[in-house]
# Entry
Amino acid sequence: MTAPNQPATPDLLYSEAEEDLRSAVRALLADRSGAPSVIARTESDTPYDQHLWKTLAADIGAAGLLVPEKLGGLGATHREAAVVLEELGRAVTPSPFLTSAVVATAALLALGVENGPAAELLGDLAAGRHTAALAVPFAAAPGADHTADVTADCGALTGTVRGVADAALADVLLVPAATGLYAVERAARGVVLEVLVPLDLTRPLAGITLDGAAATLLAGPDAGAAAVRHGLLTGAGLLASEQLGVAEWCLAETVRYTRERHQFNRPVGSFQALKHRMAELWLQVVSARAAARNAADALATDAADAPLAVAVAQAYCSGVAVHAAEECVQLHAGIGMTWEHPAHLYLKRAKADSLAYGTAGRHREAVADLVELPAP
Amino acid sequence: MTTTVDAAELLRRTRELLAAHPPATTGRTEFLGARFDAGLAWVHYPAGLGGLDAPRSLQPVVDAELAAAGAPDNDPRRIGIGLGMAAPTILGFGTDEQKQRFLRPLWIGEEVWCQLFSEPGAGSDLAALSTRAVRDGDTWTVDGQKVWTSSAHLARWAILIARTDPDLPKHRGISYFICDMTDPGVDVRPLRQITGEAEFNEVFLTGVRIPDSRRLGPVGEGWKVAQTTLMNERVSIGGARIPREGGMIGPVSRTWRERPELRTPDLHQKLLTLWVEAEVARLTGERLRQQLVAGQPGPEGSGMKLAFARLNQEISGLEVELLADEGLLYGDWTMRRPELVDFTGRDAGYRYLRSKGNSIEGGTSEVLLNIVAERVLGLPAEPRTDKDVAWKDLAR
# Structure
């Protein structure tokens, strides 16, 4: 056996257009997604700021980044979507961008249709008129099978799905079943959502129970399953950029705080034990950026080794975000344990993200298959 | 005459050199000498000193053309200390006479150089060095001990820093010299290390007499001169692309694939974690390279040595464990004197032991973490008690 094929050289930098997009999103979030307002919103009945989402989705056009122009989108790529996720992670903003504009959108795009219900729905998602959620557990890894939870009978769906991210707010649910991929209006008769209490307060989870809910068939079994896989692969790959954003904020804020906080008549950031922890974290963040960019570029260019790039990015970035958030809480000490300081939002987001779209362990298993390092 | 030497001109001169000295019929040293004299050794150096005052970025034009013609190279890995450290320092601080005397034989490889900086009591805290140089008219007398000196047993010359004024604070009482390694009083002894080999030497200096004409830079400003040397020591990671599985993860991955009987669930998890980290380190290096090419150098380089040191140590540790019975054996404890460190050509036990040095040599990981924390993250320095105290009054 030989070493795996060498990949084409990916573009790991940010383009000028990507930096412009970043500036626009960052300015919007600085203005409308400050930590106090995020904390206040997590305790309200409306987890998302609809005005903020409309500005991001429609005015900046983020919802249509992955959608080709002929279907009503901006015809940009995963690279741009990744930059949006970095900023959403950095501000720990509650938003359906990842679930609707990335995962559901990528699943629909994988169907490759230019008209019909899927194409129409893509147009609505791209314009920010509607949001959609793929009805599989948020923890589902790209390779897992999700067709057993729901059965279809004459176009009516019955079954339950656990822990679906952003389901309670989505206008449309994309439901996989053994007979294909279906679209169900969330408000349709026979759709019952049980709102769950999530670890990550900025990303709502719900259980879905379908009891003869009317559904539109979007694709048959094979195309449907491939679409779900592609949606989850895209989600896993770009989630790495959200994790990068989370980690970057945690490091930057910890550095800022420890430079200012004095104990023993010195800034605590001057103590070597703390400096080394922050320097180690910096190295991990720098590495996570390369891994996340590589995954985004591989998805954008539909590279042959995109599944490996995604698995490597998830296997690495999940841990970095959690480590950064845990260090952030510890190095902030007492204040880091309080509700009013935003560190806990990042810890909860990072930990939940480390389960989302497959744990690091699941992605390492994928790496084992892809590079021929088989289990004993 | 002022001309801008561009790529076309360099190519023209390179072809002229090749025509006048066909590599197939020209001796190695003769060819290298002709190349130096043509200004094609390091094109960014001044004319007459091996260069043409051309942009440094054009060196690959010359190198590629010469390599294609099968011209001999000057074995830059073997004479790395001369090329990477002594030459830029001599160019920056040497007298015209010193430049004329030393640069040509250095570049051709006729004269090997070594570096007499580190001491048993001055490693990370290099400015604490205690090797003394005492002036007597036009001559300095040097006494002390240096350590971790690569190539000292092969070297004709050394760059040396020594204390010339113990009454000043430690950074201000140091001067910089060129030391003749053949002088009486220079005693080079192999330093056998953890692998059984002796890559390095200890150098004992006893009453070594150095003429003042071989001082580099003003008396007492040796620390400043040494900064030039040390800045040039930093290996540029920007150059080479590393292929996937190009580092130490390569041998262990191959062993895993070829020998299923060695596999255990626990080692599988460790291997996959390290495989992912090695791939991410490769991508981080590639991103750094792309930043340099795009003219946006980032601070990532400061961290890459840390990452590779840790990875090398963890991967080679895993490899010994994976090999089971064979991991208990070691290839060869003979005290060899290798000129180059060859990680991948040796066995797993050697890799495990030698990689322990990766977090020590060229700046310990602890010192590099301080540098990242202070220079990249802007964290405050620790309070220092040595800055304004005369060297002789410091606790040692």
User: Anything to note?
Assistant: Strands of chain B lie at 113-116, 132-136, 139-146, 157-163, 174-180, 186-191, 200-211.
